[in-house]
Amino acid sequence: MALDKTIDPSRRSSRPLAKAGLQSERLLWPTKGPGVFEQEVENLEDALGLTTLEKAVAWAQTNSMWPDTFGLACCAIEMMSIVSSRYDIARFGMERFSSSPRQADLLIVSGRVVHKMAAPLRQVYDQMLEPKWVIAMGACASSGGMFNNYTVLQGVDKIVPVDIHVPGCPPRPEALMEGIVRLHEKVMAGVPPAYEIREVAS
Amino acid sequence: MGYEGVPGLVETREAFGETTLVVDPAWLLEACVHLRDEAGFNVLSDITPTDYLGWGERGVAGYIGTPSGRDINAPGSQGDSRRPTTKPKRFSVSYHLLKLDGDPRRVRVQVWLDDGQPVPSVVRIWPTADWHEREAWDMMGIPVEGHPNLSRILMEDDWEGHPLRKDYPLGGEPVRFSGEE
Amino acid sequence: MATVQRRPQVYSGTRIPEPIPSVLHAPEELRRSGDLLTVNFGPNHPSTHGVLRLVVDLNGEHVVGIGAVVGYLHTGFEKTMEHKTWWKCITYPARIDYVSFQYNELVFVLAVEKLLELEVPRKATWMRMALCELVRIHSHLVYLGTSALEIGAISMFWYCFRERELVLDLFELVAGARMHTRYFQTGGLAEDIPVGFYGEARRFCERMPKALDDYEAILDDNTIWRQRTVGIGLLSAADAIALGQSGPVLRASGVDWDLRKREPYLAYDQVEFEVPVYHGGDVYDRYRVRMEEMRESTRIVAQCIERLEEMQGEPWIADDRKVVLPPREELHTSMESLIHHFKIVTEGYRVPEGEVYVTVESPRGESGCYVVSDGGPKPWRVKFRAPSFVALEATATCMRDAAVADLVAIVGSLDGVMGEVDR
């Protein structure tokens, strides 16, 4: 492709991640090496040494990861717009937002989680079947955002283990999609879901 | 429009183009019925409780952004030589009324209360007051007498304390920076 | 009330439940018979209005009891804003009603300007009006997309969000952010209007009515849509006024009341637009009111663009250096500007003592902001009157004789945004 010509061949990795979204960074910055995320994912992939069967399972999981409708506040509106035709999340197989947590794989916590909502959030998370992943979308879900008061949970990772934090207030639909793509890459590399890694809140 | 006929009227204030009628809490129901039926204020727009604990302890002066306050050479405009006007009691509850008509008008009915002093419910007069009064109880701890369902609405049912009071702390956590121990 | 008496009431008498106006209680015999099923439409449910919880008593398919539980998104805006300076406060209101974000900023900024008695240049006034009408279109598009999705007209979601992306493109062009732009400042706008805006906005105004024609072609005379919405969720004019309703819910019940016409703010008395009023008081009429409002908003935006083009080169923010930051070029040369900049950014400007209550016509109804200032750099009390808060009180009245399927349609038509309800 024409795009390949601008990238320094010695720096070009043959791994899937390098061909996916993050390639755009190197179009603007041709001498850039692999980013920290890419490097770590590649190292993990080598270290974990997945079998072909596990890779096939991971491929199936990422290509049809159904999100749960957990829209809370402003980020929910941007989450709805990734379903819309311009940002089309159906190309990742994720357009089927499942209202029942039993049939969902991915919990995108979009919006500020307040004390009163913490219990329903944990209930929904517990009802999901494993393997399950959590994306904390937006500043409020990641860390409480601009609200540091008596009622907003300072980060949803206090009650559920989070795989990906997506910054922004609200994050652009493209930003959320980058978060989703990175999650897919993590899963393809063989990284276990957060509840197996994190000691907190699992 | 003259508001002299409002029962229990203590004071009328005009500021920023708005009229505030300060009413004795014991006469609140009669005043509201009078305003709804005689004066035609058929919509209750909002009920706002306010806590004035700590009002006036900080002086205000100097860099005030009003036409009068922008002259920094005027006497009394520097330093802490001006305090805001004192308030009669700790809590005020403001009822914002609207006359929905060809000739619309707004008025604010204000009552002043001590801590724990109840205010009668105006649910019978304007049914929309239901949730507003519940919020006043939940957030500020203003007991509403005669309310059919006075329970917490925004906070959990077993929450202790009334968050919007001035002696209730803001809460939250100290921010931890990455790289710190 | 002249408007009400001219048309027959949609039902006689009042249907507001007693003793609690916002809770419908099942009749005693039904409760004792044991035939009731209590279902919890919990805070997490597919209806995209956010975290509303409805506890519903069902007798077969019919709703005989309903009560709403809110507070699952109570963020403590009002308390947080008491601890921030007036300038930093402006970031917060946009997140209250996150679908019509510009309106909360507008109402707060108007309240502060009223206390300051600050005069805003006309360019800022007209641009505020244009952006607010664009946000009205955005809000109604989200309403239409999600309500139609819930009732079953699933493809409407994609059509509406396609146009919504155009509105958000305009916002991104002007302010750099799609939502929560924080473009309004006390005294005017944060920055000048960028060059490409007028052309893009004009193109949008030409495109929007055609899109609305498409939506009407899909839904207006659609048998299924009409069966699901006509005669559902009735609310008479008298009940609507007693319940404090405003906005499209009130206008669909036959009351001709729009703050833009009756108590004009910004420059609404200088633009031509109509206010749609329907008399059915049902879900269908609320849908019709919002569709027509989108058309009228497009008209207003087109008129604003024309006026704004004449004002190119004019100031976009007031000149008062005690409140407004000086232009950055001056900071290099003028000591006074540096001092003003420093004082405003660190300590904040002080707003004189007083209390005001300002209302605007947001897409959901009468949105108000009550501000009490003690003359200091931080607000003493800020309260936002949320139209959705009041609209949810009307749920019990609208839900009389409703079936489960109608519940979704009615809650959608009241168009509540939970961020606003819970603040």
Q: What sequence of helices (H) and strands (E) makes up the elements of chain B?
A: EEHEEEEHE
Rg of chain B, rounded, reads: 20 Å
Termini Cα gap of chain A: 45 Å
Order of H and E elements of chain A: HHHHHEHEHEHEHH
Overall, the morphology of chain A is globular
What brief labels describe this structure?
heterotrimer, A: 202 residues, alpha/beta, 4 strands, 44% helix, disordered N terminus, B: 181 residues, five-stranded mixed beta sheet, two-stranded parallel ribbon, 2 helices, 7 strands, globular
How would you characterize this protein structure?
- The complex is a heterotrimer of chains A (202), B (181) and C (423).
- Chain A is of the alpha/beta class and 202 residues long.
- Chain A is built from 10 helices and 4 strands; from the N terminus they run αααααβαβαβαβαα.
- In chain A, β3, α8 (138-143) and β4 form a beta-alpha-beta unit.
- In chain A, α4 (36-48) packs parallel to α9, α5 runs antiparallel to α9 and α6 packs across α9 (173-189).
- Chain A is globular.
- Chain B has 181 residues and is an alpha/beta fold.
- Chain B has 2 helices and 7 strands.
- Chain B has helices at 28-37, 129-140, and strands at 9-15, 18-23, 43-51, 91-99, 105-113, 119-120, 144-145.
- In chain B, a hairpin with a 2-residue loop joins β1 (9-15) and β2.
- Chain B is globular, with a radius of gyration of 20 Å.
- By secondary structure, chain C is mainly alpha-helical.
- Chain C has helices at 2-6, 28-33, 77-81, 86-89, 101-116, 122-151, 155-175, 197-219, 223-229, 237-242, 248-252, 259-262, 283-310, 335-346, 387-393, 395-398, 404-414, 418-422, and strands at 37-41, 53-59, 62-69, 184-185, 188-189, 354-362, 365-373, 381-385.
- A 3-stranded antiparallel beta sheet of chain C has the order 1-2-3, with no helix packed on it. In chain C, strands 6-7-8 form a 3-stranded antiparallel beta sheet. Chain C has a two-stranded antiparallel ribbon with strand order 4-5.
- In chain C, a hairpin with a 2-residue loop joins β6 and β7 (365-373).
- The two termini of chain C are 33 Å apart.
- The model of chain C is unreliable at 1-5 (pLDDT under 50).
- Chains in contact: A-B, A-C, B-C.
- The A-B interface holds A 115-116, 144, 147-152, 154 and B 155-156, 163, 168-173, 175.
